[in-house]
Amino acid sequence: MSADRPARHILTIDLEEHFHASRFDSPMRRRYWSYFDSRVHKNTEHLLAVLARHSTKATFFTLGWLAERYPSLIRTIAASGHEIACLGYAHERVSAQTPEQFRNDIRRAKQLLEDVIGQPVRGFRAPAFSITADTTWALAIVADCGFSYDSSVLPVGFSANRLASDNRLQRLPAGPRSILEISPSTMNMLGFRVPIGGGGYLRTLNYPVLRTLFSQIESLGEPIVLYLRAWELDYEQPRMEGPLLAEFTHYLNLHKVESRLAQLLTDFSFGSVRAHVGCRDSLDDSVSADHTDESLSTAVQ
Known about the structure:
Helix content is 36%, strand content 15%. By secondary structure, the protein is α/β, with parallel strands linked by helices. The protein has helices at residues 27-31, 40-53, 64-69, 71-79, 99-117, 137-144, 199-204, 207-219, 244-251, 257-267, 273-277, 296-300; strands at residues 9-15, 59-62, 83-86, 123-124, 149-150, 170-174, 177-181, 186-189, 192-195, 225-229, 270-271. It has one domain (9-300): TIM Barrel. 44% of the residues are buried.
């Protein structure tokens, strides 16, 4: 798919090292980040090759920590026609930060990324989709820092506990404004929404079942929003020790990810957030939170 052709669905990549995974996070491990074996160049080159074979562009939510160390890698991704968005600087969950720490983290990352690629960075995603009903204050900071859209809210669980609605692009309150929210795809199973757009479900569900679920979303006229972490294509990555559940979920079926991605790119038309909704100047406008139920077409006109 060409860089400027509108896309039916949305493909997003979290550009991070295997040792950045939140399920293994600890103060001790963070001290050794710079000493761990970096595999992000190999993984990114592999991923770019897969996307090129399928003529597909994606949005790469990128850590400022990586942009600071490997600016040429980030420029290579952008030069290949992919969108660069922001994953924060230090891969900290929102709940682990004060509002001021969060603001400083994402501002630092946004500035680093924009300096590297020489273009505005419009999108933000919090590590581990950690903007929840308990951290709604973060959305106002995301909007205030100049981001046009957010992709940090994973609408799973029961409806009373969900910050966003299911499988539609929508605007969420962000202080005196609202911000466009682009949540990964979920599916209602017995009244409980589960995240089928990435992670363990994407790796473990039988592909015909997964294709059927995605086709149901497509039939409703809504975009499939897919997310992958760059390390998920690297089934030979060094094994980290941690809680048994963390190890199980992190390494489960990594060997299937590349073929699963190739099948999805063959069966569905994916592109970047930028290609799907367009980051026009109107997305930067301050929109009253009273209009959060507007349709996407109204929101981006």
